[in-house]
Structures are given as structure tokens and as C-alpha cells.
Amino acid sequence: MSNDRSRYYPDHDDVAQNKTMAGLAYLIFFLPLIVCPGSDFGRYHANQGLLLFIVIGLTNAVLSFIPFFGRFLLIPAVNLGFFIVAVIWMLHTFNGGTNELPLVGHIRLIWRD
Asked: What pTM was computed for the model?
């Protein structure tokens, strides 16, 4: 049985007004914090976008230690995979979705009020 207390349930008006900015958080995570600072939906997706950027950075840092093969083959392939994940989550957000990123989505770095 899952713990539904940690799941985010958005306000439908907030979603309707801010889903574009929330979706763009997967490309520029701080955009919803600037454009719609009072939106819980925007803040939720800004957090998810920040987590995605952190995971990309950490993955690239680890892979950069692998000579040649890591820098010129693995890093571009992994970055393409992360870009595809970002686009999928962005499209899901444009439709009002609130699914968390796998493995790290439960972490909260940007708090809701």
C-alpha cells in the first residue's frame, strides 16, 4: 500500500492557469518560480525540474571520469536519454499531470507553502 500523504494533489484552477510555465520547468527549472511564484503546481514542477538537472549533473560528473568512452560516447547518450525524459515529463505537465520523477521525485528541495 502506498503512502498517499506525500502525493501532491493540485488545485484545478492553479493547474489551468500555470501548466505552461510548470511544463517549461523541465527545461528552465526556475521559470515558474519567477513567472508564477504563488502557484503550488508551478513550484512542484520547479522542484522536479531542479531534481532532474541535479541528476544530469551528477551523472555527467561520474561519467566524465571514464576516459574517452565516457566523455565521447556515454555522456552524449545519457544526455539524450535525459532530454527525452524531460520532454515526456514536460508534455505530461502540459496536460496537468503530477507524476514524480522515478527514484528522486520524492525529494523536496523547493518547498510549497
From this structure: 0.87
